[in-house]
Amino acid sequence: MKGLMNRNHKAGMFGLAAVMSVATLGCSGAAGGLGTAEAPMIVEATIRIDGVPVQNSTIPKGMGNSTVFHVRMDDPQGAGNVEWVQMHYSVPGQGMHRDQGMVQLHDDGQGCDEMPGDGHYCYEDGGTHGGMHDGHHQGDGFGCHGSGSMTGEYRYEFRGGDREGHESNPVVHVVRVE
Ligand SMILES: [Ca+2]
Known about the structure:
single chain; alpha+beta; 2 helices
């Protein structure tokens, strides 16, 4: 019993020492750590409704069947070093309320993503992904394509990260539905 506790205590101390040494490297600046030199970069982010780019523009309500979010990532260690790409959204809801959330874009060659592992990430809201309901395409509620989309400002922020914990530059696109 006592021996087990001692082992756990030592493991904890070792873990703390490892964290401290990493922090020291980061502070020295010599290792490059948190600098932009090793971080992934969002080269391009687009929002398309039925193939038409709509980012940073004003569009009519009910413009199409789906909203496709696409991000092209680059990384000094290659596209395979990128671990995740997210889109955080803040879109009009009922009344003064805004709906907020996050989805993961994927690079798996499925759905709207044409080729796996090429650094092009995608997410489709609506269309065949969302299915049909009462004759209308149903999405996840944050796309700006639908006849049921609320009017107002749709804000989409894209972010990515790599396997070493570096984060990319954020890219924000706004779409206004009238
Ligand atoms: Ca891809």
